[in-house]
## 1
Amino acid sequence: MGRKIAIVGAGAVGGYAGAYMAKAGADVTFIDPWPEHVEAMRREGLRITHAATQVEPFTVKVRALHLTEVQGLAKEAPVDIAFVCMKSYDTAWATMLIAQYLAPGGFVVSLQNCMNEETIAAVVGWGKVVGCIASQIGVGLEAPGHVHRGIGKGGSTYTVFRVGEVHGRITERAEAVRSLVAHADAAKVTSNLWGERWSKLVANAMQNGISACTGLNGSEVVRQDALRRFTIRLGSEAVRVGQALGYTLEDILKIAPDTLANADGDAAACKKAEEIRMKAVESSASVQRPSMGQDMLKGRRTEIQFLNGLVVQKGVEVGIATPANAALTDIVTRVERGELKADPHHIIDLRLN
């Protein structure tokens, strides 16, 4: 509890995890570029709500700084743990912003989508980088000062947060990060950070971009045959790339990696993967949009180049074709630029074979 913590990016994931840390009594400073959000947190606190009615909503008083006020940290005790929770394209400058206020033994935690540890290491060095994956968390910044979680907590049934060192060893500082994020939901320390990271990237590659370019939420995508099968193809390509890169992958959306890898071309594997996805939406009433779908609705820049675009890039490096991921990257980019309107037929009408 004596550590000084900074949350750089108090949006959906950063706001959610950080609010629970603050509620537990941790010394947390929230830093965010959205003035209205900062002012709402200062004025009213940070409000956390859940779609799951059995989880009590709460509001916690927090310390919040705008980017222009971060320089004031120079007059205070240095930061021990800095969580970078910005979009991937903002990782480098956000890390540079907080790096100068780190304690000598301080370090930066990437609590983000995508693979951003290397970008952070380029600023602070590999020795000051820890990774943290938030898997199947389903949170969104609903309004200034208000984060909402659209799905139930993982609890004892699913481990949401996975904390790991880039070298794979279990360390005291990784355990310290685990204990902090565990205030929000189930957490563990993993020796397989890179495998966990790529597995989460595959899950995002299957869900985020397709929501962004169709305008549909996650459940609506899975319930349409053509869209569901396209998501399976996206995942199949991404898994095969990850395996070629040498990652030991975890289950992806409850689908075994080998099943998903074989689903593009193997009818039995494809059927099994589809059944698992259908079972998931049939047992859930969630209408939560994946984060990229939320970004598109808000007119924000998407992370498509860091998700499906990265799959394409790495596929070229290892000699694996990724036509579905390439097509989706192009479509989302065009919708983002306003060249196309979000429409399911961008995917339904694709002819890749």
Note: The chain has a mean pLDDT of 95.
## 2
Amino acid sequence: MPTRLRFTGWHRAAIGLLLFTAPALRAAETSEVNPTVVAPSGPARDVFVQFANALEDLQKHYIDPSKIQTGEHSTTALREFIRSLDPEADLYTADEVSGIDAQVPPDLGDIGVSLAIRKDYPTVITARDNSSAQDTHLFTGDQIIAIDGQPLLHARLFDVAHRLQGTPLSTLKLRVLDPVSGETRQVVVERMVMRPASGVHLKFLGQGIAYCRVPEFTLPVVESLLAELKKSKLQMAKALVLDLRNNPGGGFDTAMVAARLFLPDKAEIVSLEYGRPEYRTTFVSDGSYKCTLPLVVLVNEGTAAEAEIFAAALQDHKRARLIGSRTFGRGLLFGQFPLPDGSALFIPTAQFIPPSHKPFNSVGVTPDILVEVPRETERRLETLGFGTFDWTQDKNEVLESDLTLARALQLFAK
């Protein structure tokens, strides 16, 4: 799901996020006043009146008024309006909100895939490491066009995510379109209990070069990264390769903590640009522990959201060179806003703006060094899992197959 906050107004969204990460952040000054209530303009009121009049005439004159369920049809109409603004925006019913707020059962099965809506279909950002989606070769960019024979054109991301979950060991039949070749295939995928990544580990690739695969930005992963970085300093590493390929993001706050490990004090990491310019909020680095090793960051189309924030910040400050392919382009912050009847709006409220002030939403972050990897080669690497190699035994095979990592090592060899 998209990066989200859950507040009751634009201003509270900005202030709430600041308070959440305040101990380690410097944010733009914002006055603590109530959000301004903006009355609908004349044209907007006219639209509401038109909708009410149309509904009234339907109830009076439609051939079968019993078919008109006012609440259901009004919700559907408003949802379609909201989704016309952004395909991942939504209007949740009160029951759906209760389901979102409920604690997820620890034994709930899932296929382990991160999705976005692209070209009106749920599209794979990445299959998580050690997931059934990875085992069945679901690949970045693949579009899921049907689940168990039911088409997904214009499907809600909420509904798709719900349908992918279920009893562990139960199976789903997915119809998948490869947008590059135009070919479709059927995939049978098994739901399994997914466990979050617990940490990361350094591998040493010779000549003092350390390698670390960062699968997502969660608290355990970032804490483990810090421990490994301190270890690398003790072991006198000369350079570091951070692998963010197929990292779909994670927690905004943990991505900020991770970026501060590499950026100098007071360096800008990202700004949140809201619809109201006065709510713009900037996050910066601090004086915490720093890793000063020469650094490259590996990225691909499966690098998204908070991982793009991290990569763009290091690139813009020339702290690291990015190597690989253009990233996914997931650069919006979503907020959930409760409505009086228990339903809730789920809409993009802010855009991630990197230090270069070049937004990456929908376009991605362009690496410093582009590496063209054949799609089938990339698919094979993703299925095996980035960073799963044994360098001692597999060195030659890795250098021949993983063109992006090989290019990074060449860069350090100069």
Note: The domain at 109-193 is CATH 2.30.42.10 (Pdz3 Domain).
## 3
Amino acid sequence: MRKYNEKQAFALRAGGVLLAGASLFAMGCGKDSKAAAPPGSGAMPVKVLEARAVPVRDTSDYVATLKSRDSALIMPQVEGQIVQIHRHSGDRVSAGTPLMQIDPLKQQAAVKSQEDTRAAAEANLQFARQQFDRTSGLYAAGVVSKQDLDQAKSALDAAQAQVQALDANVREQQVQLRYYTVTAPWNGIVGDIPVHVGDRVTTTTMLTTVDKPGSLEVYVYVPIERASQLKMNMPVEVLDGSGNVIGDSRISFVSPQVDNTTQTVLAKARIANSKDKLRQAQFIRARVVWGTQKNPVVPVLAVSRIGGQYFAFVAEQDQKAGSYVARQKPLKVGQIVDNNYVVLEGVKPGDKVIVSGTQFLIDGAPVIPQGAS
């Protein structure tokens, strides 16, 4: 009987241990199951920024060309062989400075021939004048007839006309002779000289250029879609390779015609070039400022792009529950200003734009808005 009681007590003790172990296991499992609860079961704290409207310039950048109104393309007015080049590329010259000499020997001979012919005509004029004076005296004395006097007068008039015609020919040949010396049309800098001594040139051969230092014109070719917005005195900025503004100007000319090849409209703007930073025929970036308007801005990090469409999450308050939910808004964005997208459509000033945790959000998810620093 005593032995039986010891076995029974041992069984009771073992059962109590197993029961306690089962209870502890159950408690441990309960804690693990509570810790493993999905985090989406409650509202997610997110940082938000209120979209604010700021003044934003509406601008467009185009590749433009610099041209000078004070750049002369030097081409010969006569044909011939170059016998001397007086200046080098880069030389500063004044107006009338000889640049090149085209062989003038043939033209000099033509001028000499015309001058000799004129000298002979001058001698004939002197003789005709003497004959007229003599005939006039004889006619007054009644020695010769009126017909003789008229013939002498006619010969004098013909001699005078011939001398005048030869004078004109001599002047023409002398002017032509001056064209064989190519001179600078104004004060400036000699450009590239592609010809050499001994080359034969024609009136279509480019000899060099002479550029006046100073202002240049920006040639901006604006697509026809925005051409209707071009206006006189519209601001234009000239940018360097880093995007820095190196010159400000305003549109001074808008072409009334469309380029048939490129379907663009030409606009011009003058720009000062006092420090010679810019060069003739240089390609630059020109920024046309269309105007200024107020648009909301959204941080770049708050915007996602899916399939070419931009989206942002906005915290909207549920009027019934009083809580906030995340709404995914499609956006139409403009340019980037200070790490913010300019929003054209999709977000209004005052909207609470979610700027954190957007990768974990879905449309309609409950959120707790918090101010972002």
Note: The first strand starts at residue 44 and ends at 50.
